[in-house]
Amino acid sequence: MKIVAPVSSPAEVAMLLHCGADELYCGIFTPEWEARFRGRWWMNRRSPEGANLTWPDLEHVTTAAHAAQVRVAVALNAAFYPVGAIDYILEIARRLVEETGVDALIVSDVNLLIRLQQENLPVRIHLSSLGGVFNTHSVDFFRELGVRRMILPRQLQLSEIQTIVSRKRHEMEFEVFAVNDGCLFEEGVCRTTHAFGPFCMMDWDIQPVHGDVSDALSTRIGRLHEYRWHQNNCGSSFQQDGLPNGPCSLCRFDQFQSWGVSAVKIVGREAAFYRKMRSLQLVKAVMDEVRNGRSSGVARAWRNTPEYCDSGWMCYFRDPAE
Amino acid sequence: MIDVAFHIRDLPAADMTARSVTRLYVGDEFCARRLPSPDRLARFCRSADESGLGVTLLTPILSDADIETHESLFEVLSRRHTAPEVVVNDWGVMRFLRTRHPEFRIAAGRLLDKGFKDPRTPASDQGADADPLLSGGAFDQAHIREMLHGLGVGRLERDLSPHCSGTGRPDDRFGLSVYYPFGCVATGRICWPASPRQGFAPAGPCDRICETLSMQLLHPDVALPVFQNGNTVFYRYSPVMLSSLRFLAESRPLRLVFQGRAMGCDDPAPEVQIP
Fold first, then answer.
1. Which residue of A has its CA nearest to B138?
2. What's the CATH number of domain B3-183+235-272, 3.30.70, 3.90.70, 3.40.50, 3.20.20?
3. How far is A134 from chain B (nearest CA, A)?
4. Contact state of B136 with A82 under an 8 Å Cβ cutoff
5. A2-311 architecture in CATH?
6. What's the pLDDT tens digit per position in B8-41?
């Protein structure tokens, strides 16, 4: 199982390679896109400021990564690209492959997948978690569109991951989330943009439409706020030893390996250097346990936040019975 | 006459005949736990037959276990005399049904019609002057239409975008349905209103609070009224959007799917009811 880490600056590359990243992924920033969409619709679901690379930066990152035999994937993973934007994205894709030599494109828009399949560029296609693979039939659907790896969505149960991966591991690579950044909704069926801030994190005044349910509703709203805090990296906090808090699947790594998962992903292209480094160190330490044939259950002790783990609300993947 | 379908959850739906309804929508696009039992679906089908109405089964995202569990539902539907219609919102479910139930008429659900439907969009980006690049959806594009046609899909199901009141370029290969008075903003397999039982586990057991509780989400920065029922957030169409929808329905073949009551919310105000 490989570790896939985010990069948003050439200054991070040496650190990421030193700390054990097996693959890198990033986004690209182009002024043309920003001019056209006035910041309303991000090209790859992350702010152009601080989360994405310019062309020269990407070339630097790719050269350094390839020198260390590390693959680089670029996210072109908006949930959808409007009619007038797909041709431009295809131009970007060609340039990424032919001039920059990236190894994979991370895509979710079905129209773009179809166009890329027709284009037949010499590049691996990875399906973003926004593709929404919740069953083995979807694996077959996207494989026929040229997908080589699937990043599985957050809102899968553990047993569903096991079913999908164990049944399809010989036909498809699977990547799952390892640490950072939860989501209240399922990304693949959320039509909002973080360009206006996370919709689910807004300070809504929630009022019942029907009946007098204020007591029951206030209890549920209280739980919602608590859950959102956990999903938001526990208020973007860190442990005393500097390890980042937030959603994770660390203690499941040994199961992922036995089922045939190909890679685990550290979320957070937009994260600061320090959070990226500590996230990768945490993931690498757990991965080393698994690679040495030991249990990943040690992650819980390293987390050193049993109260958060006990809630279950920091887990990406759970089965309802737990 | 405008073609109106009515999404129902219970029988009898006494007022459906009074509304010139031609079809019943049953099932759910957002939650597998809201799919009817096979017996209940059979009762819906019988009732629809007696009233001379068509039946459409809505389906949500389904896991492999869900698909196995609900095979009997598809069997019930396939035993109907007239060609049954199923709305799919999951590419895997579409592939499964094409293989296992080629007799079904498949409609591509609105969750597959990805687009930009953020109700927080500034007023300057809405209405007739809206940026056309922000007002479309995946179904507007030729490549996905070609693929859907090749998969045997005969109908596209859509919302009105918060940014414009059009329904895209007509295409003789597909029927077109538009839901009203709500468009879908976001959904998922975690249902916070059901958290006391579900515990924020995806697709976990629940106390069916969605059957009795709908909420309005209020915020000064949001242009359209926003509601939540169960795991899903909706925006309610403005009177202008509804008027535009009525005009479209009168001028071209268009099925309107009324989903107000099924969402646990009241009907829209009388001046915007269709028909």
1. A80
2. 3.20.20
3. 5
4. yes
5. Alpha-Beta Barrel (3.20)
6. 877 766 555 556 788 999 999 999 999 999 999 9
